[in-house]
Write a structure and sequence with these properties.
single chain; Non-ribosomal Peptide Synthetase Peptidyl Carrier Protein, Chain A; two-stranded antiparallel sheet
Length: about 140
């Protein structure tokens, strides 16, 4: 029972729940960025590279063997698909850049908010008499006695 109790205490902590939400949102964000890369950015890059997409780039180590009579592939091609690796690097760089921009904007907004809180002027209490004025009053009272 101790193990289950400890696990429940761990799972119900705010940090764990926040982390779980972050993982889910991060997964969804990753899908959005992957779509941005695959559907928007890479077609533009493809135009710049002469119509070839990164994912098509490969080094064939062993070509496919095709049966001449039936046209069926009897042995599949063996290739290093380094274009797909380049695609994943581009995805990562765009995701990293997006996260950096979001964090930077949040940090700048937090700094501005903190500066505004520091700039709030607390009204000063009315000042009392100075030390010289008090001494003068004391002297006058003592003279009158």
């Amino acid at each position: 029972m101790g193990f289950l109790k400890d696990f429940k205490a761990f799972a119900m902590k705010g940090n764990v729940i926040d982390m779980a939400v972050g993982v889910v949102v991060g997964g969804a964000f990753g899908k959005i960025v992957t779509s941005l890369v695959n559907d928007v950015i890479m077609p533009l890059v493809s135009i710049a590279t002469g119509g070839v997409s990164f994912t098509d780039w490969k080094a064939v180590l062993s070509p496919a063997i095709v049966d001449e009579i039936t046209g069926e592939v009897t042995k599949a091609e063996v290739a290093l698909t380094y274009g797909n690796f380049i695609q994943q690097i581009v995805d990562f760089l765009i995701i990293a850049l997006s996260i950096f921009v979001v964090i930077r904007v949040m940090t700048k907004a937090g700094e501005k908010l903190k500066k505004k809180e520091e700039e709030v002027v607390v009204p000063e209490e009315p000042k009392g008499p100075t030390q010289e004025e008090l001494l003068t009053e004391i002297r006058d009272i003592l003279k009158n006695k």
